[in-house]
Amino acid sequence: MKLQDQVAIITGAGRNIGADIARLFAAEGAKIAVVDMDQGRGEAMAAEIRSSGGEAMAVVADISKGAEVQNLVRRVVEKWGRIDILINNAAISDNKTVFSITEEEWNKTLGVTLTGPFLVAKYVAEQMVQQGQGGKIVNIASTSGFQGRASAIAYTSAKAGVLNLTRSLAVQLAPYNIRVNSVSPNKIGSPVGKDEIDPNRQIDNLVGRPGVPMEVASVVLFLVTDDAKFVIGQDIKVDGGFSIKMV
Predict the structure, then answer these.
(1) Which stretch of 74-83, 170-179, 237-246 has the lowest confidence by average pLDDT?
(2) pLDDT over 80 at 102, yes or no
């Protein structure tokens, strides 16, 4: 197993991409902290992992609040003694224009989608440094961070921030043997913040179909294994070729 006995925190792990990352990591031997704002969804995912013979705990945390993130880290370390992997996956979208979005909606979207990854990375990295054995962090960015969109403004701004947060974290944490990278999906599974797949969702990639969450999960797995030990500060687009058509 590629992740035998490693401890992984995965935010937004109760559904879609986060859920499949949790399933795949557990199958590879990792102990999973399933972080989700929806307690029932998080508990269900943790129970699924345990029923398959893995180890998992569910934690409810608002990652936009530092105190709740510190409590999350503390609980994971109390249970398993360490943290080896962080996957910053949780995000929300505004789906608004500059004219329709409110200040509250802007702040909430950036709080979860950009400040959240910063806070979780900050406190997890502190624990990794204390352990003295390095670690791996993967931030789930988005092709929306590379382009303007008519249907969102806070989300696109936040995901652009996640991309440069990844680069800055990579530079600052490399001396501690903590590798930081990101993955940018495009229209994988259900839309951000929704449980249902929209059958009418427009697809404009080179594969001609929507992506599925496990296709992102497998790339994230690569980035946290020794197969990617020379990959630092990079973004891998998992988008069916969508990004090479962006203008």
Answers:
(1) 237-246
(2) yes
The domains of the chain are located at: 7-245
Distance CA 84, CA 3 (A): 10
Q: 160-193 burial by CB neighbour count: b if 16+ within 10 A, else e?
A: bbbbebbbebbeebeebebbbbbbbbbbbbbebb
According to the model, what pLDDT value does residue 245 have? 80
Put simply, whether the predicted model's pTM sits higher than 0.90 gets the answer: yes
Check residue 100 and report its DSSP letter. Answer: T
Topology of the domain comprising 7-245: Rossmann fold (3.40.50)
Known catalytic membership, residue 155? yes
Catalytic annotation, pick one of 25, 80, 146, 155? 155
Phi then psi for residue 47, to 5 deg, are -65, -40
Q: Which residue has the tokens 């962090």?
A: 137
